[in-house]
Amino acid sequence: MMNPGRQIYEWLDERLGISRVILPVIEHPVPRGVDWWYVFGSATLVAFIFQIITGVALAMAYVPAPISAYDSLTFITNVAVLGSLIRGIHYWGASAMVILIFVHLAHELLAGSYKFPRELNWLTGVFLLFLTLGMAFTGQLLRWDQNAYWAVVVAAEQAGRTPLIGNWLTQLVIAGQTVGGATLTRFYATHVFLIPALMFLLLGIHLYLVVHLGISEPPKAGQPVDPATYMERYHKLLEEEGEPFFPDAVWKDVVFALAVGVVVVALAIFVGPAKLGALADPTIIQADPRPDWYFLWYFALLALIPPSVENVFIIGFPALVAILMIVLPFVANKGERSPARRPWAVGIVVIAALSIAVLVQQGELAPWSPNFSPEPIPASITDRLSPSARLGEAVFDAKGCHDCHMVAGTGGQRGPDLTHIGSTLTRPQLISRIMNGGTNMPAFAGNISPQDLSNLVDFLQSLK
Ligand code: HEC
Prior knowledge:
By secondary structure, this protein is mostly helical. It has 20 helices and four strands. β3 and β4 form a beta hairpin. The mean pLDDT is about 90. The protein binds heme C. The site of heme C has 23 residues, from α17 and α19.
């Protein structure tokens, strides 16, 4: 009599092809000497799976509408069982995934793994990177607090400055003219349906290719890739000194993924999820519209380049980088893979990593962000104000003007210095400026009483 476990296995095997298809995949040979640099791809996958699990859990309680999003997150964080932990894992896991996918990419670039026959591995990987960044961007707004809200307002304004397609692009991103309920719905649907669906599709292709073509052997100087002979050499290498992925090679991936998991959970427990700022309020500009770190470097870059080229650069620069990444495996799919023989590849990775580090740090300080606790305007100015201008000065502080504008050496540097604005702009010009705002200045029409406006303009006019 056959044992029942065996019978069940054979029943399933006949239908699923476990021994014919699945086992050979799990046990497929990989080149010996695959080192710790190879673990970043699988760790990215594990991070992605954890983002899905925690994301689904969050979606069970998150209500994606402006009146409820913030409250539902407060509920998740403070009341729901394990809510804070799950939000924390989702938050830190996102950072982990972005770091892992970048290191994975850097390794494949350094090791020349995008060369023949793995051009499509690279291409699907590059699109997975774009989608991961899309997840990071759409996720931030879902917090629906002041910082998240204003970060998207700033991003939308920047997108709006793209030549030709700016308006259309802004409308596409924020689903209308202003950031509001429709924007939240659009970001939510993009974050939970659209991008994940595309990621599953690309990931399926990416993993299929990894198994079908086999992972690239560690590069050796003096062994250039020649499409005519590569496959033959690779298969010989596997036959001579390959080892099965499971159980021989997989332990490094498991150890590393566990280590990442421990770090993420520890951060979720001891540091916790992103702090929720004040509820998003389009009428209050008291916000620190700093994007989460993954985009901070780019915003810092925008703050540092000359304003005249900014409009072209905003979309032009990421588009250029994207195009270079896409064409890379097609223009350079042969030749040496070893980093020792490819100084330009090493140079690009080192320079990119250093610039991003410096820019993230600069982004923390860059004046594109308002200053929320400006020093008071000095007495030398306030002492000679008329009574109405004095009231206007209070409005200037209360409405957040001072956070963006310098007056006599105090205040933020987001907008122009207004110390002498009374001698350059007339009363109607000032009013029109305040009511209509500008590319990087909110419009105050409907958000300031006529009396406050009149006092404010009295104040500005006395700045000569
Ligand atoms: C979020 C930051 C921000 C806030 C808040 C802000 N501004 Fe501005 N402001 C700017 C920027 C940036 C400009 C530069 C032009 C542009 O981007 O439209 C500007 C331009 C101006 C100008 C025109 C200056 C010139 O030299 O042409 C005036 C006047 C002005 N702001 C007044 C105000 C007043 C008054 C308030 C408060 C009611 C205010 N701003 C609030 C960012 C801000």
